[in-house]
Design brief:
Helices cover about 40% and strands about 15% of the residues. It contains 14 helices and 17 strands. Strands 4-12-11-10-9-5-6 form a 7-stranded mixed β-sheet, sandwiched between helices. Strands 13-14-17-16 form a 4-stranded antiparallel β-sheet, covered by helices on one side. The chain is globular, with a radius of gyration of 21 Å. The structure holds pyridoxal-5'-phosphate (PLP). Pyridoxal-5'-phosphate binds next to helix 4.
Length: about 400
C-alpha cells in the first residue's frame, strides 16, 4: 500500500533510523533497546529526491561556504511563487526576510513588536516554544485556551476579546495548529481578525504546517483575510516541516507592512545568526521540485492518521482522538485513564515508546500525549501495539 509513484515509505529500516545523529532517535537513548521515537515532529521517510540531489551536489563540490546575501539567493522570489501557487496568496519578494528558523522569528517578533511586561496572547495547548518565547523575552502570557469540542479545538473568541489588558500587543497564532492539527476555518479566522482589529493587536502567524493539509481542508493564510489584517500580520513559515529538513535551519518571515519589517529588522542579522547555504538550497529545491514527493507523503500520512483512528477505537478504550486535519501529529486524550506519572512517562516506562508530553503544551495539555506518525505503517503499528499492550497490562 505504501508505494506511491516512485516512493516507498513502507520499508524503513529501524536499525538505519537508529544510526541517525539527530535528536529524534538519540535523545532517549541509543541501541536496539532504546525507546521507539515518536515525540519530535520529524519524519522517518527518505528525503525528497530534489532535496537529496542538492545536498549531494554540494558535497561533490565541497560547496559548504558562505551563502550569497539572503536577498540574492532567489529565496524571497521562491517564497512569493510558493505562496501564490499553494495558497493563492500574492506577495512580493520585498516582503520576505530569510531567517534561521521559525522559532527564532517568534522570539525576534516578541522582542521588537512589544515591550517587556506587555502581553502576548497564546492559544493553548500550543507548541511549547510559544510558551518559552513569551517567558524568555519577559512578556506576559495572556493565555486564551482553545475549546475542545466534538470536531476538535476551536478558538474562544469571547475569551480572546477579554484576555490580558490594554497593554496586550501580540497574538501568536499557530495555524494550522500544533499539537491538534486543526486547520482553522475562514469563519474562525474572520472572528479572530475582528478582535485583532478591535484590540489593535499585531499577529504573528506561524504557518509552518500549511503544506501538510489533508484532503477536504484548506489552509487560509491569516494575512489574506483583508488588507488591514495583512498590514498587521507577520507570517512565519519554512520548508523544514513539510520536507523534513529542520536540521538545515532556514525559514522565512513575510511582513504585511514596511513598519513591521523595519521594527523586526532592528535585531541585526549578526545577532539573529547566519544562514547556511545548504538550508537555502534545500528550501529552493523543495519548493521548486519537491511537490510530487510531498503529494505522495501526504497520501501516506493521510492513511496513517486514519489508521490511528481505527486502532484507537478498537484497541485503546477510553482514549480520545480526533484525526488531525493537517501535520504529522496525533494528539491523544488519555485524561479518562489517569496515567501515572503522566502519559509520556507511562508509555516511556511501560511501553518503550517516546511520545510528546501533553503538559509541555500548557495546562490544557494535561492528560494528553502526542504521537508523531510520519513513519512506516510497520513502525507505527509497533508503536501503537506497544502502547495498547501497556494499557492492557495496567487494566
Ligand atoms: C508550529 C511549529 N512552529 C515551529 C516549529 C519549529 O520550526 P523551526 O525549526 O523553524 O524553528 C515547529 C516544529 O515542530 C512547529 O510545530
Amino acid at each position: 500500500m505504501g508505494r506511491h509513484c516512485d516512493f516507498d515509505f513502507d520499508h524503513l529500516d529501524l536499525r538505519r533510523l537508529r544510526r541517525r545523529r539527530g535528536e529524534k532517535w538519540r535523545l532517549f537513548g541509543e541501541g536496539p533497546d532504546a525507546p521507539l521515537a515518536a515525540w519530535v515532529a520529524e519524519m522517518d521517510f527518505p528525503l525528497a529526491p530534489p532535496v537529496r540531489a542538492v545536498l549531494e551536489r554540494a558535497l561533490e563540490l565541497d560547496d559548504v561556504g558562505y551563502p550569497l546575501p539572503p536577498a540574492r539567493t532567489g529565496l524571497p522570489e521562491a517564497t512569493a511563487r510558493r505562496m501564490a501557487e499553494r495558497f493563492g496568496w500574492q506577495i512580493v519578494p520585498e516582503q520576505v526576510e530569510v531567517i534561521t528558523d521559525v522559532v527564532q522569528g517568534l522570539y525576534v517578533a516578541l522582542e521588537t513588536l512589544s515591550r517587556p511586561g506587555e502581553g502576548a496572547v497564546v492559544q493553548t495547548p500550543i507548541y511549547p516554544p510559544f510558551l518559552a518565547a513569551v517567558h524568555d523575552t519577559g512578556r506576559r502570557l495572556d493565555e486564551n485556551p482553545l475549546v475542545l469540542g466534538e470536531g476538535g479545538y476551536v478558538p474562544d473568541i469571547a475569551g480572546l476579546r477579554a484576555v490580558g489588558g490594554p497593554d496586550t500587543r501580540l497574538l501568536l497564532l499557530c495555524h494550522p495548529h500544533n499539537p491538534s492539527g486543526r486547520v482553522f476555518r475562514r469563519e474562525e479566522l474572520a472572528a479572530i481578525a475582528e478582535v485583532v482589529l478591535e484590540r489593535d493587536l499585531v499577529v504573528v502567524s506561524d504557518e509552518i504546517h500549511a503544506d501538510l493539509v489533508y484532503p477536504g481542508h484548506r489552509h487560509i493564510p491569516f494575512a489574506t483575510l483583508s488588507p488591514e489584517i495583512a498590514a498587521r500580520t507577520l507570517t512565519l513559515t519554512s520548508a523544514t516541516k513539510a520536507f523534513n529538513i529542520p536540521g538545515l535551519r532556514c525559514a522565512v518571515a513575510i511582513f504585511g507592512s514596511e513598519a513591521l519589517r523595519d521594527r523586526f529588522l532592528r535585531v541585526p542579522r549578526s545577532l539573529r545568526g547566519g544562514l547556511g547555504l545548504l538550508g537555502i538550497e534545500a528550501t529552493l529545491a523543495a519548493w521548486s521540485a519537491g511537490q510530487p514527493w510531498l503529494d505522495a507523503v501526504l497520501r501516506y500520512l493521510d492513511a496513517n492518521r486514519r489508521h490511528i483512528a481505527e486502532f484507537v477505537a478498537a484497541e485503546m478504550p477510553g482514549v480520545g482522538y480526533t484525526p488531525p486535519e493537517a501535520a504529522i501529529l496525533a494528539w491523544l486524550d488519555f485524561r479518562r485513564l489517569d496515567l501515572r506519572p503522566t502519559p509520556r512517562g507511562f508509555f516511556l516506562e511501560q511501553a518503550g515508546v517516546a511520545l510528546g508530553e501533553g503538559l509541555d503544551f500548557g495546562e490544557p495539555g494535561r492528560g494528553f500525549a502526542r504521537i508523531t506518525f510520519a513513519t512506516s505503517r510497520a513502525i507505527l503499528d509497533e508503536i501503537l501495539g506497544r502502547m495498547a499492550r501497556a494499557l492492557r497490562r495496567r487494566a
